[in-house]
Queue: 4 jobs
Job 1
Amino acid sequence: MAKVGVFVCHCGENIARTVQVQKVVDFAKKVPGAVFSADYPYLCSAPGQKLVIDAIEEHGLDRVVVAACSPQLHEPTFRAAVAQAGLNPYLCEMANIREHCSWVHRDIDDASAKACQTVTAAVERVKRARPLDPVEVPVTKRALVIGGGVAGIRAALDIADAGHPVVLVERQPSLGGNMSRLSETFPTLDCSQCILTPLMVQVLRHPNIELMTYSEVEEVSGFVGNFKVKIRKKPRFVVAEDCTACGDCAEVCPAPGGNEFDLSLSSRKAIYIPFPQAVPSIFTLDADRCLNANLDSPTGFRVLACVKCDEVCKPQCIDFDQLPEIVEREVGAIITATGFDLMLGEQAEECGYGKYVDVMDGLEFERILSASGPTQGEVRRPSDGKTPKDVVFIQCVGSRNPEHGVPYCSRVCCMYTAKHALLLRHKVPDSRAYIFYMDIRAGGKGYEEFVQRAMEEERVMYIRGRVSQVIEEDGKLKVLGVDTLSGRPVEIDADMVVLAAAMEPADKGEIAGTLRIAADTYGFFKEAHPKLRPVETLTAGIFLAGAAQAPKDIPDTVSQASAAASKGLGLLSQDLLQRDPTTAHVDETVCAGCFECLAVCPYGAIERKELLDAQGEVYREVAAPNPAVCEGCGLCIVTCRGGYIDLEGYSDDQVFAQLGAMGPPPEVMER
Amino acid sequence: MTEANVTVAESGTGSVPEGWQPHIVALVCNWCSYAGADMAGTTRLEYPANVRMVRFPCTGRMSPLMILKAFEQGADGVLVSGCHPGDCHYVQGNLVARRRFTIFRSLMDFIGIDLRRLHFAWVSAAEGHKWARVVSDVTAAVSEAGPLPAFESPEDWDGVELPSVGDGGPQELTADQLDLLRANLRRAASEVLAAKRVGVVIGYGAGSLPGQNVPKLVTDSSACEILDWGHGCVNNLSTYIGDALEHNDRVAVVVKTCDLGAITGLIREDQVRRDQLLLIGMQCPGVHSGSALAAKCLSCSGDPHPICDLVVSVDGVHESCLDPSDAALDMPDARDEQIAYLESLPYAERWRYWQRQFGRCLRCYACRAACPLCYCSSCIADKHRPQWVPTSIDNAGNSTWNIIRAIHLAGRCSGCDECARACPADIRLDLINRKLALEVERQYGRVGLDPEEKSALIDFRMEDSEEFIL
C-alpha cells in the first residue's frame, strides 16, 4: 500500500481566503493511502519545502501530493524537493486549488468541496504513478542550417566559430538570399552587398562549415540530438572543383533568358553565375533552359544539340552526365532559416502589377537602385529606359488586408519605402516621390528619425490613404486614390509605381512537412512560445531564424539567427540529453499488429518490431515506440483498441482512478 | 439530429431532486486549455464550481472510454477542451481527436444522451475569458438538461415500433440456376486447389438442418463436392482467414459482396496481405434471416464484385481482379428509415429504447466473436487494470460495452451484420453500426475498397467540420 503525504498550501491568503484549508487537510486523511497531511502558509518557501522533505523522512512517505498552485508554476520546485528527500520526482503530484479553485470561486463551501475532490483525485493518481527515469540520448555534435540567406549565414558562422561542424544547405546556386538583392539598408544606408559578401566568403572559407549550394533537404528522420538528414544535390553540370568562373562558357551560350536574381530585369544565359560576387563562384548550367533536352533526367533520352560551352571551357569542367546526388548527414540540431517571398496577389493586380511593366514590387526596385543591378544603379524605368520623375510608392499592398491579402503587417515596408523614396531623391534630384500609407510603423533604433529625414530633408510626399486603381493614360500611370486625412480623392500622374508587397514565407509547406514542425495559417513557422521560447519550435532540436518565422528586418533577423545558434550550441554542448520519460509503451505479448498507432503518430516514433520464435523465425510483427523519439502525446494509446499501449505519467490506470474519484461530491462535503 | 428534438428533449428521470446541482467533469489538455484555465484564475474570473478537471497531455490522449466512465460515475455533463486546430503542441493530436469526438458525439446523440450534456471546446492558453465563459455556458446547459437519466431498463414502457424495412433484394434464382452456381463454384474451387494456387478453400457446406449452411474448409481438389451455395450461406468467412493462414501460404475464400469490406479492412490493418488471398466472388441470391431475406440484402443486387480474383455466376467462372483503387462499394440500406425514425424521437424515448436493448445484453460477446474486424488477441472488455468495461451484467456495464464495441468499429465496420445476426438477445447492433457508418461517410467521405486508404478515424483534414465545438 502506498504511503501518500498530502501538503496543503495557504498561499498566504490566496487559497485560504476561499478554501477552508483545515477541512481539506482533515478530508485528505480519510482518503485511502493518504497517511499524512499537513498545511503551511507558503509551501514553496524554503521552510515549506523543508516541511515536505522532513515529513517524507519522518513518516516514510513514498508519494506526495502538493495542493497549491498550478503545476505549470511550481511542479519543478516540488519535484526537486521530493528528489532531495530521496523520492523519484515523478512520484510528486500537484493538485491545483488556486488558479482552478480559490481564485475563480467565491462560495467557500463550493470551493472547499472542489478542493477536497481535487486532492482526492490527485492522491488516487499519484498512488498509481511509477518512478520514472529520464531517457538519456547521445548528441551528434553537428548542426544543419537550412537556408543561406543572412539568417542562415549568421547562424552557421556562430555555431562554426564555437567549434562545431555545420552543414549549410541553400537551394539556389549562391549564398546570399534576399539580402544580397538589396541596394542599401535602412536606416544607415550601408550597401547591402558590401556588408553581406564578406560573411558569405567567411562561410566558404570556414573549416567547420560544409556548404552545399544548389541543394535541398529531402528527408529528415530521427529526433533531437540524433537527426538523420538526406540532402539532394542538384546537378550543376559543371565540375565545381575545376571551374574558374572565367565566364567563357556564358559568352558563347546561345540560350538567354531572364535572370531570377534580378527578378528578370536583366538576362542571363543557360550557363550562368547569378551575380558577380556569388559564393561559391561557380557556373551552373540551368537544365530547363539549356538547348540539350532532358539533361537532368537520369532516365530521359538526352540529345546533345549544343556543346558550345564544353568546347570553350579551358579547364574542361562541363559535365553533361552529372546526376543528382543524395548525401546523408547526421546532425544534432537543425536551424531553419528559409526566408521570405513577396506575395503579389489581388491587390497588386489592382495596382497594375503584371499589366504595366513600370509597376514593380519593392525587390525589383531594389535591383534598379543597386549598383550591381541591371541599370548599374541608375534609376531608369523598365519600359523605355527613361529616368522617372514622378514615382508613387504604395505601402501595405496585400498586408493588413484580411479580405484580399493577409491580415498581418509585413513590418519592413514602411522603412524600405522611406528608403526607396530617399534614394530616388538622391539619385534623381528633380524627381518627386509620393508614398501612400496606412500608418507609419517605424519602431526601431534610428527608424523614426530616418522617416523624418525622408519627409523633411527629401520632401517626400506622404499621403495617408489607399490606392484604388492604377491605369495607363497618355503614357502616364494614373494613380487613383483617396487622401483619408482630407477625405479628398487624389490623382497622381506617375512615371513609375513601386508596390510594397506583403512578405510571405518562402517555404510553402515542404520544409515544415519534412521537419514536422508547425506553421501558422500563413505558413510562417511557429515558435514554441511567442514570448519565452521565440526561436525554438515545439519539436525539440529544431530552431527558427529570420523571416521564415515572421516578417522581420535585417537587425531582427540577425539577432534571431544568433539566438537560434546559441540555442543550438546549448544543445550541442551536452554529451547526453535528458528527455521527459512520459512516453508510450506497448505490451508486446498482446499487440495485434494493426499498426494504426504508427499511422497516427505525429513523430514517426513507432517502429515495427519483429518477434522471433525459438527457431529465430519471425512469427509476429508488433509496434515498438522509441522512447527517445516519443513526445508522449498519447494519440497512439487511444487508437489502440485493445488498450495495449499506455503512457507513463498519464496511464489508463491513473486516469481511471482520477475519474473514479470525481463522482458527485459525497455527503460529507456538502453543506 | 434535428432541431426539433433538441427542443422537445426532456430529462430522463422527469423530476429534478431539490437542491440538485449539475456535476461536470472536464477533460483538458495540458498545453492550451489547462493553461487557459490557469489564466482565468490569474485574471480572477469567477465561474461556477461544478466542474472537476482532469489534465491530459493532449486531446488525442482522451478516449471515449473516459467520457463514458465519467457518466457512469455520475457526471451529468462532460466537457472536453483542447488547443485550437493548428495550435496543437503535438501538431495533429487535436485534429485526430476532433474526428473521434465528432463520431462519438453522434453516437451519444443516437443512443439518447442529451447533447446539452456533452461539450467540446477549443480554449487556448491565452483565452482565460473564454474558459470562464465556456464553463458557465456548459454548466447552464447541463442544468437545463437535468440529472443524467439512470442506466436501467425501463419498466412500464410500451416501446417504439420501428418502420418496416419493405422488400427488395437480388433477383430470385431458380433451383436450376442455383445448381448451376454450385457446380461452377465446385469447379472453380477444385481448379484452384489442383493448380496449387491455394492450400485451402474456405467455403460453405450443408448444415444439419434443411436450408442451413455452415463454414467448411476444403483442402483436397477432389473433395469440392461438399461445397454448397444458397440462402443459408450467412457467415462472413473472413473471420476464418487468420487461422487458415497459420497452416497455408495462400487461401481461397468464398465471398459475398457484403463480406468484401471486412477483407479490405483486414488487409488495411495488416492482418493479412492481399497476395495471401484468392477471393472467389459469388453471385448471391441473398441470405435468409429466419425465412425472410436478411435486411442487408434488400438493397443489394447480389452481383459478385469485380475486385474478386474469380467471379462465379450462373454463366460460369471468370478471372477478374479489378484494381481496388478503382472500385466502389455502394451499399444503400433499407434500414436507414429506421435510423431516421429513431432520430426523430425525443432523447428520453431514445434513451429508453436503447437502455431496453442494452438491458437484454448477456455479455456473451458473440458479437465480438462473429465480427471479422474484432481480431484483437485480448479485448479491452477483458482488461482488468483498469476495468473500463464493468463485467457485471447491468445496464451501465452493458451500455459501456455496446458503446465501446460500436466506437471501435466506427469508420471500419463493413456492414456485414454478423454481430447482429450472432446476438442471441436481438440487440439492434446493425442500426448502431449503420448509423456510425452514415455519420463517418457524411463527415469524411466514403473509404472504399482500397487498402491503401487510411480509415477515417486515424486520418484528419485541417478543414474537417467542427460546427459543434465551442
Job 2
Amino acid sequence: MGPLVPEVIGNELNFIVALFVGIAFGFILEQAGFSTSKKLVGLFYGYDFTVLRVFFTAGLVAMIGVIAFDHWGLLDISLVYINPTFLWSALVGGLIMGLGFVVGGFCPGTSVCAAAIGKIDAMIFVAASFLGVFLFAEGYPLFENLYKAAPWGNVRVFDSLGMSQSLFAFLLTVVAVGAFWAVTLIENKVNGKSNPEFNSKPLYYGLTGLALIIALSAFALPERRQSLLSEVNDSRFVNGYALEAMDCDELAFDIMDKDKNLQIIDLRSQKDFNAMSLPNSTRFNLENLFEKDAHKLLTIKHKKNVFIADDEMLEKKAAVLASELGYSEIYYLKGGLKQFRNDILNFQQPGTASNQHERDTYRFRTNAAQVLPMLIQEYKLKMTASGSQQTKAKRVVGGC
Amino acid sequence: MNETKYMNPYLAGFFLGLILLVTIFITGRGLGASGAVKSGVVAAVQVVTPAHTADTKFYKEYSEEHPGNPLKNWLVFEIIGVVIGAFISGLISNRLKLELEHSPKSTTKIRIAGALVGGALFGFGAQLGRGCTSGAALSGMAVLSTGGLITMMAIFGGAYAFAYFFRKMWI
C-alpha cells in the first residue's frame, strides 16, 4: 500500500527516486514545448494554449489516479502531502506569480527546463528567482502575518465547497474538456488559421468521450468507504455476517502462553486504552482501519487478529469491516471486554464445580486472574519505559 | 537538421499526469520546483554568513522544518533530474542551442529586464504562496488541495489580468 516511502523505499533511496522523477519530469516538459517562453505566454495572448492542454490533462490524470488508488486501497491518502491552505498568502502569492509569469515568460520548473537546453533568458530568470526567494527570506518579518493568515489546514477542495469528491472530480473534468474545446476555437481565431494537429476530429471526439466516461465512473469510486461504514452500522447485516469468535478463556490462555501469533486490536478510546490495555495490543477505530497502519498490521502472515472492545457489537463491526477489506484470520472476542473482565480478570468462583470441565475452567480462571494483571502491569511499565505506546505513520512533508 | 516537432500536448499531459501519480504513490508527495531554489538560497546564505542564518527568523524556521544540510533535499535532487531530463530531450529533438530568445517586436534589453523582474517576482510569490505552478498548482490539483487550487487560479487569473499591460513584450 502506498506511499512506499519510508517503509519500502528508504529515505536515502528516495533521493534517487527524486532524481529519476526529475529526469522524467524535465524530459516531458521539454518535449511538450515548455522550454520556450513564446509558447508559455501564448496562453495569455490566445495564440498557443499548449500550457493549458498539458497542465489540465496532467492534473486530471493524476487526480483521477489518486482517487482510484485510494478507492482500491493502494494508497493511503491520509499519509499523502496535501498542500496546506493559507487563504491570503495563496491568493496574493498567486497573483505575484501571475505577474512574474507574464513579465518573465517562465515559471520556476519551465525556466530550469529551458535553461538546460541553452536559453539564456531562462538562465537569467532562474538566477533572478534566487534573488526573489532571498528578498522574501530577508523581509520575512514584514510578510509573516500575511504568510500565516487564515490557516485552514490540509483541507481538500470538495470539503471546502461542501460537495462529494466524485461530484467535484466530475465537474472539473467537464470544465477541462470544455476548456480544451473553447481554447482551440480561440487559438484558431487569433492565429487566423486552424492548427492541423487538432483537426483529426474522430480521435478527439473519442478522447472526449473517454474522459467523460472516466469522469462519470468517479461517482462509482469513492463510495466504498462510506458504504462499508454505513453497512456495518446496520446491526442485522453485522449479525448475519459469518464471523469467527474467540472466547475469553482462549484469549486469556494465548496471552499467558505469550503466543507470538496473537495480535490484539483494541477499539476503545485512547483514555481507556491508556488506563488498561492487554499485552501487545494496538489501538484502532473503525475509521483508521482503512489506513496504512492497519494494512501493515493485518497483512502480517500467520497472525490471529482479535478485535476487542467493551461492547461485542463494536468488535463485530470492526471484524466485518476487516473481512470486507480483504483481511483474513479475523476474530472478535465473545462477550467483549465486559465479559473478559467478569470471567477472567475479576473471576469469582460461583460455588463448587459440578463436573470435571467446570473444575478445569475454574482452576484456569483463578490462575489467570492472578497472572494476567501482572502481565498487563509488566507490559504497561515496558511501554512507558520505551517512551511510545504506538508509532503512528505520519503524513509526508512535501511542497515547495 | 531541423528541430523535431513538439509532442502532442494531450499526450504530454497524460505522461506528465502519470509521472505525478507515480511520484505520489511512491513518495507520498508531488512534484515541485521553487522549493529547490529555496534550498539553494538557504545553503548559499549559510555559507556566506553563518551567523545571519542563525539569528534570522526565516532561516531558523527553515532549519526547524528541514534539519540537516539544506541541499540534501528531495526537490534539489528532483531539479537536478529536470536539468538532465530536459537536456536529453533537447539533445534528441535537436533543440540544444545557446540563445536569448525574445519576440521579434521586442529587444534583448527588454527581454533581459523582463526575465530579471519576472524571475524575482516568481521566486518571491512562490515563497508567499507556498509553491509554484508545479508544487502548489499542479500537485495541489492532483490531491485536490484547496490551497493548491486557489494558488492555481490566482497564478493564471493574475497572469491574464496583467497580460494586457505587457503585450508589447510578446506580441
Job 3
Amino acid sequence: MEQTNFQLKKQKSQSNDWSARLHHATRATREDWMGKGISYLCIGVIILVVASMLWFITSKGVATFTQNHVSLTKFLFGTNWAPDQGHIGALPMIVGSFAVTFAAAIVATPFAVGTAIFMTEISPNKGRKLLQPVIELLVGIPSVVYGFIGLAVVVPFMRHVVGGSGFGIISATFVLFVMVLPTITSMTVDSLRAVPRHFKEASLALGATRWQTVSRVILRSATPGILTAVIFGMARAFGEALAVQMVIGNAAIMPKNLISPASTLTSQLTTGIGDTIDGTLPNNALWSLALILLLMSLFFNALVRVIAKRGQLKHER
Amino acid sequence: MNKGTKLAMGIATISLLLVGCGKATSSTSSKSSSSEALSGKVTAVGSTALQPLAAKAGANFQAKNSKVNLTVQGGGSGTGLSQVQAGAVSIGNSDIFAEEKEGIKADKLTDHKVAVVGMAPVVNKDAGIKNLKMAQVKQIFTGKITNWKEVGGKDQKIVIINRAQGSGTRATFENAVLKGATAVKSQEQDSNGAVQKIVATTPGAISYLAFSYFTNKLQAVSIDNVTPTDNNVENNKWKIWSYEHMYTKGTPDKAVAAFLKYMDSKTVQDSLVKDMGYISIHDMKVTKDAKGTVTQN
C-alpha cells in the first residue's frame, strides 16, 4: 500500500510553494526513512529469530538437568547412552564428533592449501578456469548425495581395505574430507589473494625462489586466514548430520578404533528425534546434545573472530 | 519525530504483514469447512512403517472425496503419538501401543488398528543361516553369540544392525525376542530402507525387517522352524508382529471419521493392505493387548 502511495506522489508535480517544500520532508527524505525502517525491521526479525532459537534450545537442553535431575558430569563423561533406560552418557557422541571433525580437517587441510597455492601462485589461469568451477560444484552438492556415495562406495571400499563392517570414523572422515575440502580451499584462496603484492615482489627481488616466496612469505602472512578457513571447515564437519549418519554406523559406544561403528552428536539427533516424546528424558537428552552442538558452533565462531583480530594486527605491522 | 516515526512505521509494517497472513489462512479454512460434501483437513503423521499404506489409501480416499485435504507424513511413531496428543495433527500413526510410550497419556487417545505387520530377523546371504532358535536370536542380539559358526553358519563375525532406540519396529522386536533383556550396543539405523540395504551388502550382518521389506538379496530367518509368513502371523505361530495404529484424540471430526472408516473397509483391507505387504486386521485370529497378552478371537 505504501508503495503505491509513493508512486502516486512521485507522479505529482512538485510545484508547491517553497515554504511548504522546505518545511516538509521531501520524497528523498521519506524514502530514506522507509529504507531505514525496512532495514531495521529485517535486522529486528533476524535478531528475534536468533535470540528465540538460542533461548529455545538452551531451555530445552537444560531441562535434562533441571527436570530430570541428571548430573552434568554424568552427561558429559558418562559412556552409557540408553535414554529409554534412563542412561544418558553423551561422551561417546562427543568423542565421535570431535574425532571425525579433527580427522577430516587434518586430512583436508594439506590438499586444500596445495590446491589454493596452485590456484593463486602457480597457475592462476587454469585455477580460475578449471578448479574454481570444480570447487564451486563440490560446495553445491547436497549432503545427502555425499552420504549416499559414502554408503555405496566408501563403506564397501573400507570394508575391503581395512576389514570390519566398513562403517566407522574412517568412512565418515573420508566423506567429510570431500565435504570440507571446498570450504577450506576457497577460503584459503581468498586469504592467499589478500596477501599484499609488495610482500611477494620484495621477496622475489631479494633473490628468493618461487618456492621460498610461497612457503616463507605468502603462506606465512596468510596463516591467520588459512586457520580461519580450517576452522570454518571444522565447523561444517562438526555440524554435518546426514552424510555422517549414513556412513558412521550410529553405535553409541566409545570409539576404540577408526574402523568400528561410532556415532556423532548430529547422527544421534537425526536417528532419535522422531521416536521420542516431548518432555520426556529421551527427548530432553537429545536437546542437550543439540545444546552442545550450539555451544560448539559459538565456540568456533569466537575462535574465528580471535584469529581474524590477530591477523589484522600482523598486517598493520 | 525520528525514533517515534521509525518505530511506528516498523510496527505498521509488521502488523500489515501479520494481517495479511491472518486473512489468507482464515479465508481458505472457512472456504473448505463451509461446503456441502464431506470436507475438511486430515493430517496423519507418524510411523514410517505405516506411511506407505496410509499414503496410498489416503490418495484413493481423496480421489473419492475431492474436498477433503488429506496429508500423510512420516516422522516416526514417537512423533505421531506426541503430535496427536498435542492436538497438532488429527491422526497419529504408530507401530506401538500408546501405553508403551513413556510420556503419552493413552487414556486420552482412541486407538484404531488398521493393519498388522509381521517382522522377522534378516541376515546377509553369505552367513549361511536359514533357521534359528528363538533363544539363539536373543543371544545374538544380547551379544552372547558373536560368530555365525556358533549357530551353524560360516566362520564369520556377526554384525548386528539395530533400529534406533525408541523406534516402533525395535520395540516390537525386543518385546517378542529379548523379553526385557538389554540389547548389546551396536549400529543403529533409522529406517527400514537403510537396514535393508546395509544387511544386503554387509557380510555377516543381521537385523530385523517388516515382511514387506524382504527382498531376494537378503535371507529372512525362520525361528524354531516357523517361517515368517502372513498365515503364521494370523494364528500367532509367528510371534514377532505388531499392529499399525491410527490414534485420534477426542471425537474425530467428520472427515477424519470417514477416513478411519475407509481404512477399515473391505476395499482397503482386502486389497490394498495385502498388496502392500501388510496383513489385514480382519484376517487376524488372535488379539494382542498393550501388555503383549495374546487371546484367541
Job 4
Amino acid sequence: MNFGDQQITSSNTQRYSVGIDLGTTHCVLSYAPITNGADEEFVQQVMAIPQLFSPGLVENSFQLPSFIYQAHPSELAEGSTSLPWTLKPQYLLGEIARSLGSKTPIRLVSSAKSWLCHAGVDCKAPILPAEAPEEVERISPFQATTAYLAHLKEAWLSLHPDAPLENQDLVITVPASFDPAARDLTVEAARSVGLGQAILLEEPQAALYSWIEKSQGDWRKQAQCGDVILVVDVGGGTTDLSLIAVTEDQGSLTLTRIAVGDHILLGGDNMDLALAYTVKVKLDQEGKPIEPWQLQALTHSCRDAKEKLFTNTELESVPLVIANRGSSLMAGNIRTELTRTELANVLVEGFFPWVSSADRPISRPRTGLRTAGLPYAQDAAITRHLAGFLSKQSQAAQEMSGINPPQNASFIHPTAVLFNGGVLKAHPLAERLMAVLNSWLSTEQAPSARLLSGADLDLAVARGAAYYGHVRQGKGIRIKGGTAAAYYVGIESAMPAVPGFAPEVVALCVAPFGMEEGTREELPSDEFGLVVGEPVRFRFFASTTRREDKVGSRLEYWSNDELDELTELDITLPEEGRSAGMVVPVHLCSAITEVGTLELHAISQKDHSQWKIEFDVRAGE
Amino acid sequence: MNYTIDLSLKPTTFDLWHVCLAGTVVVLALVLITVLLSVLFAMMRCKKNHSSQSTPANLVAAEPIVKVIEKIVEVEKLVPAPIPEPVILKEATPDAALQLLGLLQKNARFIDFIQEDIASYSDADVGVAARVVHEGCKKAVHEHFTLAPIRTELEGNKVTLPAGFDAASVRLTGNIVGSAPFTGTLVHKGWQVTDVRLAKLTQTHNANIVAPAEVEL
C-alpha cells in the first residue's frame, strides 16, 4: 500500500461529510451536506438507521447497537430477517441482536471494538462469542467491525440512493487510546467494505469539535489562551481521557491535543450491573434469591430507575418489579425498590469516590487461571484513573508556550473540563467528578476548573466527526496534535548471554511524540540485517510520556510505567531476485498517513526498495 | 214496372223512412268523430312520454296504454332526486393493529395483563403488575408515536371557538345552541398523534403472533 492512494478521493458526486461513531456498544452516523461557500451554515443531522428490532420487524433508530447474534439455524423463521436492502443479511446485528442476545448470551458477539485493542489475541481469528459452545459459529473482532460498517453503508444507500457512501467524505472515530494496530484494523475494515476513503479521528477530539460546532463561534469566549481542557469521555463500555491545550499563534487561538490516557474498559454498563448486584444482594437477604434471567431483567429496570432518580431529584426511591416470565402477570412477581441512598453509594461512591490526587488505580496481579477475556479495569473508581492520568501527564504542557503551570505541581492542572458519553448526563456524577478534580486543584492553590457547557453527550462524537470533515475543507479550527505517543522497536543488545536472565532489550525510537499526519521520519544510521525469506519479529513499545525522544534515540533503561508493550511487529522479506538466507541491510522508516495510521517500512540501503512492516496480530499465540 | 232516374226532381214531402235514414247518418257521424278524437289524444300523450324519458321502462309501450301511463308517473317522481354516492368506509389494516398489540405485549405484557382474571388478586398484586404495564405501555407508545395535545389552554379555562372550527378535533357538548363563535369550558385538552413510527414488516412476517411461545433449553 502506498501513500498516494490514501488521499481523499474527490469527485463530482461528493455531497456529504459523514461521521461514524463506531462505538463499543452503539454506532451512530451523522452527516452534513458539503457546501461550497466558505461562510455557509453547517447543518447536520443524525441518520435514523433501519435495523431489525425483532424477527420480521424493521424499525429506524439513531443508534445501531454494536452486537451480532449468531442465531441457531432453526431459531428464526425463513425470511424473517430481511432488511430493506437484502433478503438475508449475513449477520444479525443491531437491536435484534441485543434483544435476542439478552436471553441467549452464549450466541452474542459484543464489545468487538475492545478486542481490537487487546494485544493478547489475534483479531482476525474467529474468537467471538468468547464463551460460546463449540457448535456456535465464531467470528473475529475484525469481521464484526466490518459487519457494522457494511450495515451502515447499506443503510446509507437505502436512504441516499444517488449518493453512495463510497463517494462521501468519511470520518470514523476511534478511542484516543487505540494503539497503531487497532487503528490499522479499523481502516482495513473500512477498506474491505469499499470505504477506503475513510480517515480516523480520536473520539475526545470529535467531542471537542462537536462542542465547537454547537457553540456557533461562541467557544472563543468560553476557552482562552492558556487553557488546558480535560475531555472526559465515559461511554457504555470504555472511559477515555484526553488533554487539549489552548494556545495563541499570531493572534488566533490554536488547539493542540497534548496527551491521551490508557484504554480503560470501564463504563456505564458496569454501573448498571453494579446496581443490579446491589439489589440482588438485598433480595437475597430478604430470602428472595433470583435466577440469572431475572438478573438480566433487573439490570434493565435498574438502568431505568437510575435515570429516573437522576432526572427527578424529588424522588427518594423507585420501585422495581421483576415480572414473572410466564403469561401470568400477577403471581410470582418480585417487587423491590432502588433508593437514592443505594444509588449514591453504588455509583457516586463506587465509581467516583473522593480520592487524593496522589492515589492510583488499584491493580491486583491477575490470577494464573484467568479465562481468555477482555482486560476489564480492575479498579472501578474513575476518579482514581483520572488521578493516575493527570499525574502521569504532569509534564504534558511543558513545551506549550502560554501555558505556565506552577513549578511544584504534582499533576497537570486542567482549567476547563468537557464531558462526553451518556453516563455523565447524570448530574450527581458530573458534579462529583468536578468536585473531586477541584479539590485536587485547590490543594495546590490552583483555580477551579470550569465545566464547558452546551455539549450533546450522546451524539457528540458522530456529530464532531461529520464536522471534522467540514473542518478539513479549511472551514474551521483544527485540533493539532499528531501521535499521542512515541513508538519504539525493541532490539536485543549485543551482550554476552547470562544464564537465567533474558537478553537486555534496547528500545529504539522510530516515531517521536506528536508526529504529524502526512509526515515521515527515517532512521538513517541504524542498520539491521534482515534475512530474506525468514520472518523477523520485533518487540514494539509505546510511550505516552516521553516527549523529548527523537527518531533514533536509544533507551537502554526505562521504568515500567514509561513504556507499554504493544503487539509485535512482523516482517518477511520476499525472495524477489534474492537467494533465501541472504542478509539484506535495511534501515527503518516511519510514517503517519493522512488517514491517521502509523506505518513502518524497512528500506534497503542498496536499491531503495521498501517493505511494509506489519503489526503482528497473532502475537498472542 | 218502369223506374226512371231524374236528378232534378226534388221531394216535396219527407216520409218516416227518410227521417229515420237522416237520424242514422247523424249518429254514425258523431261516433266517427268521437273515435277519431280519442285516438288523436292518445297519440299526443304517447309522444310526450317519449320525449321526456328514454328508460327501458318505455320499451313496454307496446303494452296497453293505461299501464304505460302508470309507469311514467313513477319515473317522473324519481328524476329530480340526485343518485346518492356509494359510501366507502376505510378498511382498518389488521397488520398495524396487530403490530401495536405485539408491541404492547412485548414492552408492557399488555395481553398477559388483560387476559388474567384480576378479581382474585389483592390490590397490591394488581398494583405491582400495573407498574410493569404502565411503564412498558408508556415506552412503547412514546417510541412509536409522537403525541401532542390539541388545545394548549389549561383544562377548566374558557375557550372560544371561531366560526368554521374543526369539528373533528374539537367536540362540543352540553348546551349547544346559537351560532359561532362558541365560548365554553375546556374539559379535556385532547390528544393527537403528530408522527407515527411503526416498524416495517417483512413479507413473511405473521403479525397474528403477538407473543411467541417461549421454550428455554
